[in-house]
Amino acid sequence: MSPTTESATGHESSWRAWGWYYDALSAARFRPGEHDFHANLAAAARGVVAEPACGAGRVLAIAKGLGREVWGADAEGAMLTLAERRLATLRPDVPHHLVRQGLADFDPPERLGLVLLPLDAVRLTADRRELAALMATVAARLAAGGCLALDMDLPDAPRRDSGWLPSQPHPDGGRTRARVRQKLDGGFVVEETVYRTTGDDGRVTEAWTEDRYRQVTLSELESALQAADMAVTQRCVDFLGTPWRPGDTTLVLTARR
Ligand SMILES: C[S@@+](CC[C@H](N)C(=O)[O-])C[C@H]1O[C@@H](n2cnc3c(N)ncnc32)[C@H](O)[C@@H]1O
């Protein structure tokens, strides 16, 4: 079992080999209010709903289930395979489009109704320039009045330790469970995951992966939005509408073109 995998964009990632485990745990797991937050935005969208770094389509599935045409991109082909499987089961009368594309090469169709960047996706940008370019493209491809929605941890968020997560059947037999721990590395939070698989013969193997999330401040994000001519419409601490206040370490933000 390889200890880590390389993603399409060259960084070490857990998604190629272990995306199935992430998906098994997260597909139907939404934070309080998160499902309705995305459903309400998708229902109101006038145009295609796009999500760069869409993973296995956890959030795009909400929009497609509501009859919205969706466009998703991800750097990792294995995640797109999972997304294709999920989206294909929903509303066959509604088109969906999935492309292999890194955030640095974000190139969605024109006149989008809604762009989604959930679960720290903006923190997957390599640096300030890449985030600014991403926001400029979001603004350029949104239709007038189109919306951007994102959520992320801010730099002072406490480092997390998931503890041992529930085990899932491994595709090759046996069962896998994982533990995710975050540590700081310069301007990045490194999420170190250990996947422990107990084979059908009782043999235990471990694989380690690392995923890096950049420390993005609210001021960096809002400068990029302002430079892109996007107006912030909601700045909350959660998906339930609780207003964000200085010192809060989570952010749920919407902006309009
Ligand atoms: C935690 S998953 C989130 C998926 C989805 N946004 C969600 O909310 O369920 C992170 C995804 O980002 C993708 N990813 C990581 N870095 C990326 C990059 N630089 N460009 C595009 N996708 C990237 C990974 O392949 C993975 O599918």
Summarize the SSE layout with pairings.
Blueprint: E1 5-6, E2 12-13, H1 15-26, H2 34-44, E3 49-52, H3 60-65, E4 70-74, H4 77-88, E5 96-100, E6 112-117, H5 128-141, E7 142-153, E8 161-164, E9 168-169, E10 175-185, E11 188-198, E12 204-214, H6 218-227, E13 231-236, E14 250-256
Parallel strand pairs: 3-4, 3-6, 4-5, 6-7
Antiparallel strand pairs: 1-2, 7-14, 8-10, 9-10, 10-11, 11-12, 13-14
Helix pairs in contact: 1-4, 5-6
Contiguous runs where pLDDT drops below 50 for at least 5 residues:
1-11
The separation of the N and C termini measures 46 Å
Shape: globular
The CATH architecture name of the largest domain reads 3-Layer(aba) Sandwich
Give the C-alpha Rg: 18 Å
Number of strands: 14
Biggest sheet strand line-up? 5-4-3-6-7-14-13
Order of helices and strands: EEHHEHEHEEHEEEEEEHEE
Report the CATH superfamily of the largest domain.
Vaccinia Virus protein VP39
Tell me the β content. Answer: 25-35%
Total number of domains: 2
User: Biggest β-sheet, characterized?
Assistant: 7 strands, mixed
CATH class of the largest domain: Alpha Beta
Average predicted confidence as pLDDT: 94
Please give the share of residues in helix: 25-40%
| Classification by helices and strands | alpha/beta
What small molecules does the structure contain?
S-adenosylmethionine
Instruction: Give me the CATH fold name of the largest domain.
Output: Rossmann fold
The number of distinct helices, counting runs of at least 4 residues, comes to 6
